[in-house]
Amino acid sequence: MKGLDKRINESLDFLIENEQLLGRELKTLFHSFKEEKIAVGFSFGKLCFLHYEAFVDNVHEDIYKVAAAVELLILSFDIIDDLQDKDSDYSWCKIPEFSLNVALAMLVMASKTIEDTSFEHKRSAIRLLEEYALKSINGQQLDLLNNCRDEDSYVQMITQKSGSLTAMSCLIGEVLAKGEVSREVQEYGKYIGIIQQIKNDIQSLKSWGPKNDLLNKRYSLPIIYLLSQKNDISKSVVNYYNDNIVTVLDNNSIENELKNGGAIRYAITIKNVYKFKALKDLEQVAINELGKDYLQKLMK
Questions:
Q1: Are 259 and 233 in contact (CB under 8 A)?
Q2: 182-300 is a CATH 3.30.2420.10 domain
Q3: Which of 16, 224, 287, 299 has its CA at 20 to 30 Å from residue 155's CA atom?
Q4: What's residue 104's pLDDT?
């Protein structure tokens, strides 16, 4: 997989350097923002590649450009998300007005890159990119409104926001290879995004810093569970969220309640529900062992 990360990174560098309509200042920011994301790997681009490779006899070199295009769209969304949430240490948050231009350019380049390939079904891939990107944007809007305060509405929101992007990455690879997409790939692709978002939500509550959802009065599955309990700790958190009285949060007590009162276990249980659904759909797809192993790791 490290070799695949390298190929996607090389394709990103190629796309940035060979875009004649961008000036040197924008290209420099492009490169620096991309470098900050290398450490976490290009998981969305890899999903695209693996679902192309699974259904072809010979891999066309242009697929690395498409995988890089997917990563351009994802990075643009990451930048915009961080600028909206104002809780990130990435360099793009220090220069928001310039970073927005980079994000906009990435969005345009994502579809332009796919259009410039020689794939027979590239128009179908672009339609998938546009459709699922819009779904994710709508999910991001719902997240910013912070009104998803029960399990059903919250899962629907993260399905749009996060599930759309993982499903999109899988389906673009599949459609380029086959000219059509399958229900199973769509479903487990979506579930992978839900699983990853729930894992991020749990991780957010492990440190009391600027990214902590509870301190920021955000809603997530563990917090929704905590707020539903009828005890002194949950009441203090409700008061904190409602701003109706001055509330001093007892961090140690809240951490203990999250860990031992069922909130984290509840979120893990919901995550595992989607893991088992994803694994069931994955069994129906003829993907090679390397790809299957990678997908299973994302579902843990």
A1: no
A2: no
A3: 287
A4: 97
